[in-house]
Automatic annotation (TrEMBL):
Protein name in the entry: TIM protein
GO cellular component terms listed in the entry, alphabetical order: replication fork protection complex
Record carries keyword Isomerase: no
Keyword terms, alphabetized: Cell cycle, Nucleus
GO process terms (BP): DNA repair; DNA replication checkpoint signaling; replication fork arrest
Subcellular location(s) of the protein: Nucleus
GO molecular function: DNA binding
A Pfam family of this chain: TIMELESS
All copies of domain Timeless N-terminal, residue ranges: 19-159
PANTHER family according to UniProt: PROTEIN TIMELESS HOMOLOG, TIMEOUT/TIMELESS-2
Length: 201
């Protein structure tokens, strides 16, 4: 965009940094000031909607300039200039550059930016979980309506031919067929308990 390659500007800016501000030449000071003014002037260019005919959600020219500054590391240098005690002479330039960086943003958007994306993702997840829960409840209700309201515990009665009960009748078996293997005449009868003193040793 407007800054082509901000790394070209970052190089001359980083060269004078190791020197103390007292040892810096006047040319170095002028070079730093000119670079900061150039960055400020590039960021000061107002947006032109007729020229920027991008699709919705596409990055504007201003956003691309900011991204180029970030990739080159210029934003780290600006943070260093803003926080270094010995570089207070550039404070107003840095403040102006930072205010131009956030020109298109409202304070509410910036305040909610860190948690905004997480909140939207959380909201989408919550909505998705809620729709899944509603669908599961609807399926459960449909299944409850399809089956009879009371479960019959009656598993059926079977006549076991070949086994005689009392009085020459066939045995009637009231359990499921899978329990037939464990059938005995004592099934369902309470076992008589023998006191311990009468139990066999």
């Amino acid at each position: 965009a407007g800054l082509g390659s901000p790394g070209v500007l970052r190089g001359p800016l980083t060269a004078p940094w190791p020197q103390d501000w007292e040892q810096r030449q006047e040319e170095d000071t002028l070079l730093i000031e000119r670079i900061l003014l150039l960055v400020r002037n590039v960021l000061h260019v107002p947006p032109d909607p007729t020229e920027e005919q991008g699709v919705d959600g596409d990055a504007s020219v201003h956003d691309r300039v900011l991204w180029a500054l970030h990739i080159s590391g210029m934003d780290d240098l600006l943070k260093f200039l803003a926080s270094a005690q010995a570089e207070q002479q550039w404070a107003l330039h840095v403040l102006e550059i930072i205010s131009l960086m956030f020109r298109d943003q409202s304070p509410e958007e910036l305040a909610a930016l860190g948690q905004g994306q997480a909140a939207t993702e959380h909201g989408e997840d919550t909505r998705e979980l809620e729709t899944l829960r509603q669908r599961e409840l609807a399926e459960r209700r449909a299944r409850a309506l399809q089956r009879p309201s009371r479960h019959s515990r009656f598993g059926g009665s079977y006549v076991l031919q070949g086994l005689k009960a009392i009085g020459d009748r066939d045995v009637v078996f009231h359990k499921g067929l899978h329990n037939l293997k464990s059938y005995s005449h004592d099934l369902g009868k309470e076992t008589r308990r023998v006191p311990r003193r009468r139990q066999a040793a």
